[in-house]
Design goal:
With about 625 residues, the protein is α/β, with parallel strands linked by helices. The protein contains 21 helices and 28 strands. It has 3 domains: about 260 residues, Rossmann fold, CATH 3.40.50; about 190 residues, Rossmann fold; about 160 residues, GMP Synthetase, Chain A, domain 3, CATH 3.30.300.30. Helices cover about 40% and strands about 25% of the residues.
Length: about 625
């Protein structure tokens, strides 16, 4: 299990010394998978650290990491831990305003970016007053004519590192041995659902403890083959592609581009895969669309085996026993149907399949288990290095997130808030004493989530404590809990439940363009745009079924009475949701105040006028009439 003095640098050097010829990373370039060994990766990280040191990056400085998943960006993050500096990843689609918030937090001495688009963003930051001395880029296309001070290629950075190491013979040892477990690993940010994102510095001890806790509980093994496709600014990506990959010698496969992920996944066929429920839902939709477009014989075979397997899994979920025929059906179905489907989607070698971030729909959860994939739920947070609790492989429970990991203690406060203690938990919010004081009580970290422990130790997460509200009659509820269950429908992408302090609950929903669009195509329902599709009476019936299904699981006082299907999806660029698709409730309620009013004043429809900002920066207005539907 290693020792308490381990750091990213020491573990990386150990891998290079003991497993130098083994593959550490693969990156697809122009259709070819380029392989990098542990020895090569360790050398590149060392040169990068020495290069940044030559640029003047020192302990306490930050380097912004900006772009999609790239090997060199990961190497840069590992290198910065050697300098005791802050690797500060941002979402590739982050706006200037969002990035300016980062600039105001720490001294950003440099930026390590993917390509020309991200170079331009850093130059915009400079124009806005940021003092970012150096910009290092991975992809040089389009940058030949740039005459920007401090702009250099990755190769130029490594050359500086080479010169620095040659000039200072003791520098290599200082870089490898200089950092401590208490020094920073990565500078992340909270989702910012209720305000500006808060800075979260995870130490090397935090992230290494977190992945060791998960490994001890069977989340992954040594030498896993994983796909690096999650946003680099999300803690789950860092925990897997840097912390766990270096600690447990994973092979990290980096897709060629964001739009080739599915094809690249099929080629790699990872044996560990973590995805948000939305990703599992999208894959299920693609499978169903494929089956609908196949031959009648294939459709018949699919439904013959899949329907029986789903029925068996549903019985397992309800605690009922399955028989020999069920097991035989799974074996035969694997050869004829399930195996080929898994192969098509890169799931054929999957041993460890996880979903996290929010609740997953029952139909989706059961489908993958029926397919022979032991999909499990996990619970984690940025502040606790991504891993708090996971389900065991043999457990099929929909309402829990499994038992707390070894090394993680859980306690429930009097008000129902989940509290944690673990070496994986951060020390506090960056330069924010007030928020830090509010986040800890007697040495316990307050997660902000409401939940409870079942008698057998399984943890149930209900939603955010701050979101616990009451109807006018005093009924207590968590909007997010109901919203997640609405999103279990493949036809609903986002939802906002309204009703705090009011007589009854209503909701605004955004339909899923792909799933509803395909349904409309199959059922000959004409439409010309998303806005048009969202108001079709046939689509309203689909949504009504989803609402009725959710209402069956709710007490009478918390049932949903009316809904509006919005003319557009909630958009992070409009500030309605975060980059991780968490609802910014205050923004949504203010922006759609006329819709909410119509949901309660007996209106049959509501006329909405919205200002939209185009990519050119010009603004225009869109007017729509949205229909109010009764459930």
């Amino acid at each position: 299990m290693g020792n308490n003095n381990d750091t990213i640098a020491r573990l990386l050097q150990r891998n290079a010394a003991e497993h130098g010829d083994d593959i550490a990373m693969r990156e697809k370039d122009r259709g070819i998978w380029m392989e990098i060994t542990w020895a090569e990766y360790a050398d590149e990280v060392l040169l990068c650290a020495a290069g940044f040191a030559a640029l003047g990056v020192k302990q306490g400085d930050a380097v912004m990491i900006l772009g999609n998943n790239r090997v060199r960006l990961y190497a840069g993050m590992a290198a910065l831990s050697m300098l005791r500096a802050y690797a500060m990843p941002a979402y590739a689609a982050a706006t200037l305003e969002e990035l300016q918030h980062f600039v105001g937090e720490a001294n950003i001495a440099a930026a390590l970016v993917e390509d020309q688009e991200q170079v331009d963003k850093v130059m915009d930051l400079r124009e806005a007053g940021a003092d970012i001395a150096s910009i290092v880029y991975d992809e040089g296309r389009g940058l030949n004519l740039y005459d920007t001070p401090g702009l250099m290629s990755w190769d130029a950075l490594l050359k500086k590192g080479e010169v620095n190491l040659a000039k200072n013979p003791d520098l290599k040892t200082r870089l490898i041995e200089g950092s401590t477990p208490d020094d920073p690993a990565v500078f992340m940010h909270s989702s910012g659902t209720t305000g500006a994102p808060k800075g979260i510095v995870l130490s090397q001890k935090n992230v290494i403890s977190g992945v060791r806790n998960a490994h001890e509980d069977g989340a992954f093994e040594y030498g896993e083959d994983i796909l690096a496709y999650l946003p680099m600014a999300w803690v789950g990506d860092y925990a897997l592609t840097v912390a766990a990959a270096i600690t447990f010698r994973f092979i990290v496969n980096v897709p060629e581009r964001e739009d080739t992920v599915q094809r690249d996944m099929r080629e790699i066929a990872p044996n560990f895969y973590l995805a948000a429920p939305r990703t599992w839902d999208n894959m299920l939709t693609s499978i169903q669309v494929g089956i609908e477009n196949s031959t009648p014989m294939k459709k018949w075979l699919y439904h013959f085996f899949m329907d029986r397997s789903i029925d068996a899994q549903r019985r397992t979920l309800n605690g009922e026993a399955t028989g020999l025929l069920d097991k035989l059906g799974l074996l035969v179905g694997e050869q004829i149907i399930f195996g080929p489907i898994k192969d098509q989607f890169g799931l054929s070698r999957l041993k460890h399949a996880f979903t996290g971030g929010e609740a997953i729909g029952e139909d989706t959860f059961i489908f993958y288990r029926a397919l022979g994939i032991k999909l499990r739920q996990l619970y984690g947070q940025t502040e606790s290095s991504a891993f708090n609790a996971i389900q065991a492989a043999g457990e099929a429970r929909l309402h829990t997130v499994g038992k707390p990991l070894p090394g993680v203690e859980v306690k429930i406060a009097d008000d129902g808030e989940i509290m944690l203690q673990s070496d994986s938990i951060f020390a506090g919010y960056f330069n924010n004493e007030k928020a830090t004081a509010e986040a800890f009580r007697d040495g316990w970290f307050l997660t902000g989530d409401a939940g409870y422990l079942e008698d057998d130790g399984h943890l149930v997460v209900l939603g955010r404590v701050s979101e616990v509200v009451h109807t006018k009659s005093g009924e207590r509820y968590v909007p997010n809990y109901i919203e997640n269950r609405l999103k279990f429908s493949p036809y609903i992408k986002d939802a906002a439940v309204v009703g705090a302090g009011l007589d009854e609950l209503t909701a605004m929903v955004c339909v899923d363009a792909e799933a509803v669009g395909h349904w409309a195509e199959v059922n000959a329902v004409p439409y010309v745009s998303y806005a048009d599709l969202s108001q079709r009476p046939e689509v309203a019936e689909l949504l009504d079924e989803a609402f009725k299904r959710v209402n069956k699981a709710l007490t009478e006082g918390l049932q949903l009475h009316r809904f509006v299907s919005l003319h557009k999806e909630f958009d992070p660029d409009d500030g309605e949701i975060t980059r991780t698709r968490k609802l910014r409730r205050k923004v949504v309620e203010e922006r759609y105040a006329p819709v909410i009013e119509a949901l309660y004043d007996g209106s049959k429809d509501v006329h909405l006028k919205a200002v939209v900002t185009y990519e050119t920066g010009e603004t225009g207005s869109v007017e729509r009439t949205l229909l109010v539907r009764e459930v």
